Amino acid sequence: MRTISIYVPEHAVMEAVGDPRYLFNTANSFFEASDRPAPFKVQLVGESRQVKLQDGVFSVNTDSLINEVEESDLIIIPAIFGDFGQVIEQNKEAIPWIQKLHKKGAEVASLCTGAFFLGATGLLDGKQCSTHWAFSSEFRDWYPNAELVDGGIITDDNGVYSSGGANSYWNLLLYLLEKYTDRETAIMASKFFAIDIDRQSQASFMMFKGQKDHKDKEVLKAQEYIEDNYDQRILVDELAEKCAISRRSFERRFKSATNNTVLEYIQRVKIEAAKRSFELTTKNISQVMYEVGYSDTKAFRTVFKKITGLTPVEYRNKFYKEEPDLELV
Fold first, then answer.
1. What single-letter DSSP state applies at residue 2?
2. Which of 79, 88, 125, 244 is the most exposed place for a label (fewest CB within 10 A)?
3. Same-domain pairing of 117 and 34
């Protein structure tokens, strides 16, 4: 029997505590229904017997205190919300506990923004990880030694796991369930909870917002130019010239300030505009392509799919909803 320890910090997202408990206990019921022993011992672990969540609106009664748990097969760190620095400080007593159990062989998984707490343990240094796409720039600033996978739903790096944003953590939970049991059980759980079992990317849900929390005025000037002129053909040499910087220096400074190369930034601004058009209008692919400054259909489709994980047609089918004809209703 594997022990699953769900750590319950103050300011955890309630669903990210309850859902993993529900999933692994449901898996137990699958086994028991077929006269097999339950594969999991599931416990909620905290620094107190009762932990208040979401500004005290909810509270959770824990099964064990962290100083009572000496071993575990898996520690799950739920999503957290609020001021991440304050949350980590308020729950810092759990950091050495997680580190100690990991040294004893426990695997560790963070759900969504729980990656910020996992990062504070040092276990993400030199490892791939994922978090909610909206906090990716902030995460990179906090943990430059971690390798953040843009758009990733699941990362697995030598027994340290993480998931992408919001409900993406269900995909990590199913991944772990399959690893600890079998594919059949994971498929059964995916059907029970109505979750797409093998979704690998959160790219189609991402909204690109350029990193502007920096002090490089020339780079900021270039960013604003790109965003104001995404419908034009933009050359790196022209941007460098506008900023009165050599191309080599400009590219280095741009990447350092924004975490994107100049070309990546241009592409992402253009594709973000294209996404909005596909979501809100019935313009065809060629119209949208020209409006965001592309003239090569193949190049546009390739870049669009690279960034969103979907073709333009797939993206429109997923997000565009035609308004009903009120005269026919």
1. E
2. 244
3. yes
The yes-or-no verdict on residue 293 having pLDDT over 80 is yes
Task: Give the tens place of pLDDT for each residue, 144-156.
Answer: 999 988 766 788 8
The predicted-structure confidence for 190-246, as pLDDT tens digits, reads as follows 889 888 766 655 555 556 767 787 889 999 999 999 999 999 999 999 999 999 999
Question: Cα torsion at 225, 229, 233, 239 (round to 10°)?
Answer: -10
- Domain limits for position 7: 2-203
Nearest of 90, 89, 88 to residue 110 by alpha carbon: 88
Arithmetic mean of pLDDT over the chain? 89
DSSP string, 55-100: TTTEEEE-SEEGGG----SEEEE--B-S-HHHHHHHTTTHHHHHHH
Please indicate, yes or no, whether residues 198 and 144 belong to a single structural domain of this protein: yes
Confidence of residue 280 (pLDDT cuts 50, 70, 90): confident
For residue 312, is it within any domain? yes
CA-wise closest residue to 206 among 309, 287, 82: 309
DSSP code per residue over 122-174? TTTTTSEE---GGGHHHHHHH-TTSEE-TTBSEEEETTEEEE-SGGGHHHHHH
What is the largest distance, in Å, between two alpha-carbon atoms of the chain?
74
Name the domain count of the chain. 2
Q: Are residues 197 and 222 in the same domain?
A: no
Give the residue from 203, 238, 259 where a domain finishes: 203
Which tokens go with 227? Answer: 């965003």
For residues 69 and 45, what is the distance between their CA atoms, to the nearest angstrom? 8
